[in-house]
Write a structure and sequence with these properties.
Oligomer: single chain
Number of helices: 4
Number of strands: 6
Strand order of the largest sheet: 1-2-3-4
Helix content: 25-40%
Order of helices and strands: HHHEEEEEEH
Structural class: alpha+beta
Distance between the termini: 109 Å
Length: 183
C-alpha cells in the first residue's frame, strides 16, 4: 500500500462534515407541538419507596421482638441488647433513605438461635445486599413447600381414584361370577 492512502482525509461518521455529505434537506423531521418539562420525563425509576416500607416493617418487627437500642459510651458505637441474649451487645446498622433513618440490630444467623434479629443476605453475583430478618420459615410456607404439598394432595387424589376403580372392577367381577354360576 502506498502512504498516500493513509494521508487522505477521512470523514468520521456523525461529524458535521459527514452530515454535509448526506442529503437530509428534503426529509421532514417531526416535532411535538406540546412542550414538556424535562423534569417530568423519568430517567431512572426509583423504587426506594418499596425498600423503605420493607425496612420499616423489619424495624417494627425488631421492636416487637424486644430489642433495645443503647447509646455507646465515648467513642463507642450504638448497640442493641436483648433480654434473651444477656451480656451481649449487637451492632446497630443505621440506614438513611429519603431523610428517614432506620436502625436495625445485626445478628449473625449462627448466633441468633431464636431468630429475633436481622442479618445481611449476600448472594453470589449480587452487587448489593439485602437485610432480612432471622426468623425461621416453615418449609411448607416456601414456594417449594407449597408445590410439594400440592403434589402430595395430587398423589392422594390419584390413590383414592385408583382404589375406587379397583373396587368397581371387583364388583363387576363379582357380578359376572354370580351371573355365570346362575346359568
Amino acid at each position: 500500500m502506498s502512504s498516500s492512502s493513509y494521508s487522505t482525509s477521512r470523514i468520521i461518521v456523525g461529524t458535521p462534515q459527514w452530515f454535509a455529505t448526506k442529503n437530509y434537506k428534503g426529509r421532514k423531521t417531526s416535532y411535538s407541538n406540546y412542550e414538556c418539562d424535562k423534569k417530568s420525563i423519568p430517567v431512572v425509576f426509583k423504587t426506594r419507596g418499596n425498600i423503605l416500607k420493607k425496612i420499616k416493617k423489619n424495624q417494627n418487627k425488631m421492636m416487637d421482638n424486644g430489642w433495645r437500642l443503647c447509646e455507646g459510651d465515648e467513642g463507642e458505637k450504638d448497640y442493641f441488647i436483648h433480654p434473651t441474649y444477656p451480656d451481649t451487645k449487637f451492632s446497630a446498622f443505621k440506614q438513611v433513605i429519603d431523610d428517614t433513618t432506620t436502625i436495625l440490630p445485626i445478628v449473625d444467623m449462627d448466633v441468633d438461635t431464636k431468630g429475633l434479629g436481622c442479618s445481611f443476605e449476600i448472594k453470589p453475583g449480587m452487587s448489593y445486599c439485602n437485610i432480612k430478618t432471622n426468623e425461621f420459615k416453615s418449609y411448607w410456607n416456601t414456594r417449594e413447600g407449597k408445590r410439594k404439598a400440592k403434589y402430595h394432595d395430587y398423589l392422594d387424589r390419584r390413590e383414592a381414584k385408583k382404589r375406587q376403580i379397583e373396587e368397581e372392577e371387583a364388583e363387576i367381577l363379582k357380578t359376572k361370577a354370580t351371573l355365570s354360576s346362575n346359568l
